[in-house]
User: What shape does this take?
Amino acid sequence: MQALQPDFYARPVLEVARALIGCTVVRGDVAGVIVETEAYHESEPACHAFVGLTPRTSTLFGPPGIAYVYRSYGIHALLNAVCEPEGVGAAVLIRALEPISGITAMRRRRGRVAERLDELCSGPGKLTQALGVTLADNGGNLARGGVQILAGAGVSEVVHTGPRIGITKAVELPWRFCLAGNEHVSRPRPVPLGAGAAR
DNA sequence: CATGGGATTGACT
DNA sequence: GTCAATCCCATGC
Assistant: This one.
């Protein structure tokens, strides 16, 4: 498989968030297929870039195809792919992976030797821990750096959209994308349209 | 320089 | 269901 080049990311962030479903994140000998993403754009207040260019957001405003990694809640590192042309602050948050290789190493890094496979990377903080992604990866090139994203084979399955998770602003935007029915997405699972009508 | 708030997770009631 | 852990950094004095 081929690493995605900067031009892949240099387009509307919502397009990229959808297109990244089914692609593969690789770091060293561990890898997983992306099954859940969220889009963030400088035009809406949930995005870190909303406040403008600061030391923290400089990566977001930089060229596309770069990793934006930041610390969340003082504990977790969260992995994003910077999108849109340089000068526009936008990124796709990688929220969940389906592990495909290096699963033993993932469990070892997670400190949970017997953790269920569908719990191993089912959250943005969990997958960075499993892959060994740290703040040192911030600013790395996703086409040739330590963390890379490879092109997917093309996703034929349904991708659900829904509201983003864990934010307090712009909660109404349906900018979360999940591979339908996949067991490795984070909670809460998106509700398929038309389901749960009866009560 | 002091403060406050998270794009979360896991443990516990 | 509730809640603490923990640190970067934006903001305000």
